Amino acid sequence: MDAATDSQMDRIESFWRFALALYAKPGVAPACLELQDRHGKDVIIALYSCWAGASGRGALDRAAIDAADACARPWRQQVVEPLRRTRHALKGIAGAETLYARMKEIELEAERAAIARLAPLAPISDHTRPAADRVTAARENLTLYLGPDAAHVAEPILAAIEPA
User: Fold this and answer.
1) Segments in 76-126 forming alpha helices (H)
2) Which of 18, 44, 65, 157 is the most exposed, having the fewest neighbouring CB atoms within 10 Å of its CB?
3) Collapsing DSSP states into helix, strand and coil, what is residue 95?
């Protein structure tokens, strides 16, 4: 994909497909949830960091990570987190199984909307970058976002990253 074909919709779909595929790999979902629940990290920003590198968009610097977090924060705080709390409150309540499942779907839709907000921030893709360089950039981006206190939790994510 070159600059002429790297439209906003292409970016959103690329990021969404990458996020779903990475999250589905063994060990990634539990690592993401630990980063979220124990370390206060935004899973969407973590996935964005990985996607930016793996898709040939290169290494992100601290300013780019902070800009992504600033972009995602209002949506996360006002929409995604309240939906998540509601879903968690329903878990295990007799008769609420259908509502719980629907809340899970709605939360996923809200996360897709977060992806749509972030994807346009990413640099234009350069798929001429060698696959190994893209994986390295993705790992460096994620490590930069997580910082030293949470980086050890990301091992399953780091191991699962492939070029997009």
Assistant:
1) 81-90, 97-118
2) 65
3) coil
Beta strands in 21-159, from DSSP E residues, in sequence order: none
State the sign of the Cα–Cα–Cα–Cα dihedral 113, 114, 115, 116. Answer: positive
Tens-digit pLDDT profile for residues 16-57: 999 999 999 999 999 999 999 999 999 999 999 999 999 999
Using one digit for the tens of pLDDT, what is the confidence trace for 64-88? 999 999 999 999 999 999 999 999 9
Q: Where are the domains of the chain?
A: 3-160
Count the alpha carbons within 13 Å of 156 in the hemisphere toward its beta carbon.
15
Give 76's contacts (C-beta < 8 A, 6+ positions apart): 42, 44, 114
Dist CA 125 CA 77 (whole Å) = 29
What is d(CA 143, CA 81) in angstroms, rounded to the nearest whole number?
24
Give whole-number Cα distances, 123 to 61, 64, 158, in Å.
12, 10, 21
The answer to whether the CB of 30 falls within 8 A of the CB of 137 is: no
